[in-house]
Amino acid sequence: MQLQPRHTGKKYVNVLPTSVSPPSGYGKLLGRYLFEKAEREPAQPLGPFRADAAALAAPVPPAALRVTWLGHSTTLIEVDGRRFLTDPVWAQRASPSQLVGPKRFFAPPLPLAQLPPLDGIILSHDHYDHLDEAAIRALAGRGERFFCPLGVGAHLRRWGVAAERITEATWWDKVALAPDFELIATPARHFSGRGLLNRDSTLWASWVLNGPQHRVFFGGDSGPFDEAFRQISAAYGPFDLVMLEIGAADPEWADIHLGPDNALVAHRLLGGGPLLPLHWGTFNLAFHAWRQPVQRLMEAAGPEVTLLLPAPGQRVDVAAGPLASYWWK
């Protein structure tokens, strides 16, 4: 039986018992924040990084599979003649305020105004580091479609996106864009909310892009969820491109973020395929050194794992094989 989200009537609940609060308590976290000495932010400015806006605006070939990582979980995916944007965040800070909160390590490599035409904007959940109100307001007037988990559409409508351009989905819902191209919302293990009063009022999800030539998995945010990854692989794998989070992980919140090692477990359960790590190297959201996720991923990945490690804004032709830009050095 396929996994289904649980709803109490007031909020969504993870299928597995899941701790969002740190088991050791917030006092211990405060001590770590004050006294641990990891280089959580780059000591020197990064970039500037520049995406090739003109090249990205060219028509997508019908058999192409290319991806451009724009930072954190924001990617531009070119697949089978179509173009999609994931979790658009252009904000300077991943925070309710642009005055305080985690600040970007580098400027977005592609100005929002230079985004090419899109076949869809895919959202995984409503946290500030994945859903940027200012970016959505800027995108709202372009006439493109948004695909999001249940409940997230209310944010979009409030920010100016026309209701008819929003498709909300629960896990395993299929959205047909053409007879041979569909998007499928798939399970994840996380949480949601943009304030103290709306925790878990909206659903979280991963997504499959299922085209005539290629299949792409966008993991959004998730903790370890072996049965979900097995089910996703059985239904839609193997994948030509897998995108999983590796950063902002810590033993204190191990249920809701994968980290590098669990990302490799998830990658294997999904059936392998080229792996583009997300959710690292852009904001200080954890206690680890900012380079640690990618360094550990490279150390732990076996030779059978094709790692795609482009610089921000660097367009990747997935079929070209492994890529390690070492931009973080």
UniProtKB/TrEMBL annotation:
<dbReference type="InterPro" id="IPR036866">
    <property type="entry name" value="RibonucZ/Hydroxyglut_hydro"/>
</dbReference>
<feature type="domain" description="Metallo-beta-lactamase">
    <location>
        <begin position="82"/>
        <end position="280"/>
    </location>
</feature>
<dbReference type="Pfam" id="PF12706">
    <property type="entry name" value="Lactamase_B_2"/>
</dbReference>
<protein>
    <submittedName>
        <fullName>MBL fold metallo-hydrolase</fullName>
    </submittedName>
</protein>
<dbReference type="InterPro" id="IPR001279">
    <property type="entry name" value="Metallo-B-lactamas"/>
</dbReference>
